[in-house]
Structure of L-ribulose-5-phosphate 4-epimerase:
Amino acid sequence: MSDLNVDELRRQVCTLHAELVRNDLVAWTAGNVSARVPGEDLFVIKPSGISYDDLTPESIVVCDLDGTLVEGDLMPSSDTAAHAYVYRAMPEVGGVVHTHSAYATAWAARNEPIPCVLTAMADEFGGEIPVGPFALIGDDSIGKGIVATLTSHRSPAVLMRNHGVFTIGKDARAAVKAAVMCEDVARTVHIARTGGPLQPIHPDDIDHLYRRYQTAYGQR
Amino acid sequence: MSDLNVDELRRQVCTLHAELVRNDLVAWTAGNVSARVPGEDLFVIKPSGISYDDLTPESIVVCDLDGTLVEGDLMPSSDTAAHAYVYRAMPEVGGVVHTHSAYATAWAARNEPIPCVLTAMADEFGGEIPVGPFALIGDDSIGKGIVATLTSHRSPAVLMRNHGVFTIGKDARAAVKAAVMCEDVARTVHIARTGGPLQPIHPDDIDHLYRRYQTAYGQR
Amino acid sequence: MSDLNVDELRRQVCTLHAELVRNDLVAWTAGNVSARVPGEDLFVIKPSGISYDDLTPESIVVCDLDGTLVEGDLMPSSDTAAHAYVYRAMPEVGGVVHTHSAYATAWAARNEPIPCVLTAMADEFGGEIPVGPFALIGDDSIGKGIVATLTSHRSPAVLMRNHGVFTIGKDARAAVKAAVMCEDVARTVHIARTGGPLQPIHPDDIDHLYRRYQTAYGQR
Amino acid sequence: MSDLNVDELRRQVCTLHAELVRNDLVAWTAGNVSARVPGEDLFVIKPSGISYDDLTPESIVVCDLDGTLVEGDLMPSSDTAAHAYVYRAMPEVGGVVHTHSAYATAWAARNEPIPCVLTAMADEFGGEIPVGPFALIGDDSIGKGIVATLTSHRSPAVLMRNHGVFTIGKDARAAVKAAVMCEDVARTVHIARTGGPLQPIHPDDIDHLYRRYQTAYGQR
């Protein structure tokens, strides 16, 4: 494997964990970011149970696509098997993020998808944010649930029932963006609905917004 | 155009974006501030998709009142057409702000104006904060909806349906203040109403408060 | 007047405004702290419409107990008349704070006192936090409403209807503490009640807690 | 007693109070952390009514297991008797934390346990977070209520009715973690339930998650 490549990804993934904290997506140590090593059957991920304050690029560990530790002094995140499954099943995915962010997890605790009633949600998620099945940690159940749900929706985010959020992206930064936007829309739609009935957006308008945003937003 | 004037506005608009972050009005890159260049058919605005951390005065772009890029290395905000329309239609406006701040956007997701039940709301908004029409990005629809709604209300803020907030001011700082106060009253009135019926303020008292605040508050 | 005394109070009051910001009690410039000058018919207070970032001890102005500016280059807070009335009517009061903190103001927008269902609320407020009358700015109406309400309750905080919070204390720091605790209990009791019926505390227990806290808490 | 040991604990406990502030668990001075001195009938605890900003390792006081001040210049926390009772009754406990964190205290104000509907809650608490009895400060009532409730549940956190949260741990850091996670799940489950009925987790799954987390999470 290219050490240069891996070291750069460790730095990126270390820095991106600070975005989880800054955007109020995580409590204590409960959330993690990983990134696929391009051209290798490897990914880098947070070590288990380490405070975000104590994360360094060197502490980020390297795993193969079975989730087995390949390089690093610490045990990988307890969610490593789920990340590994996503990388095996979805070759276009370059980054995965997992959080228990409060508003998104609240929808998951009700087993209820977030309806698409905001143009920003149409832009980023292309429709509702779906709920995946209840699954226990310890085997491929969580990974299978994530992949089965995401491959049948445009959304880069899935709410795993009674658990929390997994997001994907072309790289780790895109997956972090999806995690931030998921909590933002989960919160806004929750607040909106506690005040009364939501105003729907027509599916054609959602399609229009999604296609435009995916091609025209940001710098080329 | 006066380079001195434009450079100073770029610095101001760059700094004011930090107020959007500090006041919790924006997630990721979703919000923007613009300022009209006095005496010119130009305004300065945030580039599209750039992190607030990475904004510099130099990265702020200059557009003409059709929203066409005139100066700058980056693509302008995807909301540039809406800002441009407001500057064309409302010559007294010197600054425009757009956010998806959560509580204000929640009212917009229900297509419901925020009732004026706080003296601070009477002061700044002179009555309810109105909702504008649903409009798709890509032409003048959003700009037209903003202008049609604001020209029939005293409020410097409009909630665009299923979308978010646009505010105006004599300059960019005043528009940012309106965006901050809009979210503050959207939140307080939301919290209030989840606990029971709201106590109205008599329209004459709203008028009295609005007139006094617009003339007597702050330093002369 | 003793310049030394006044200068020290200006420093204290300047610093205490930062506590309003840190404790999320204020948006933009909407909140102010004042302190009586001991042994003089004077108090120091925030100037009107100045950002908390820009406050300096020198910018804090001095007023007499009619609310007339005695020393300082800026216009005093638009709430000066209310502060002045409290100092005239309640000689034991050494500090006054005014905010529109969101949860407390939400109760005020419903004209509803906050019921005493927390031991911390019994400690600090000795019972419910009462609501004062609706009153327009511009004369002594607000001051009269504050004093009439506070003199008939043990609470150092009053929720002025459709407006916000005024708190008093033996000095400005005690009034700031009351403002912080008022928002904290307003938020906790609001959250509690949105989930179901509240558990009352027996009035005798409230009395016991209040008396103990007022004599036994903190350092002697 | 070992001065070295006590000094190290004072430093730890001082630092851990900053975590209460950072995680938004405390307003003003209302929350405290203590740590048992290993091998001694002593514990260290916050002094009463001191601002978190002003805490230093030297200001942390030492008490015996009756709650009597043994070393230090300041009066111990007004909650010292409750901490002392826990250390006397539960020899395996090395740290105790008390807060009035808003969401957890809201459940306590309704006398309602937090149902276990999140996998993260099963992990850390092994089931619901129980409510302890209403108890007045001044004798062993609070301590007895804490111990009676915690010894009949797996949860390291108890919601004392109309009061707030007490958490325990093998050391002070573990008790702080439990306090942070308690508020996090109290908030998420509150938000979830305001939106509709909660999805339960099967008790066997809760058992499975709890056992796994207690043995397999983090670094060995």
